[in-house]
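Internal tracking record. Fields below are filled automatically when a chain is submitted to the structure queue. Please do not edit lines marked as system-generated. If the sequence contains nonstandard residues, flag them in the REMARKS field before resubmitting.
Queue: standard
Priority: normal
Entity type: single polypeptide chain
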Amino acid sequence: MNADLIHKALANPLRRDILAWLKTPEHSFAPNAARFPHGVPSNTVQARSGRSQSTVSAHLALMVEAGLLVSTRVGSFALFSRNEAVIDAFIKHIAERF
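SYSTEM-GENERATED OUTPUT FOLLOWS
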């Protein structure tokens, strides 16, 4: 776990929103959005955010680099899900440190 990268990722409100949306994707995304067992497609996240595809891709890439998200490729789809192990480790790190 790289706490500095996680802090950087969490410094942006859109990235915090994405993390929250992916916590409960069944409630956060349109009912007709594509559903996959391994995560949410990037275009679904992009549609919810209202931002450009390139902007959302950059945010998702930083969150993957920080370890907060896991990216899984299924056919032509890049699917994103939360990395709960890293999130839990970061919460524990914060609780112990501060």
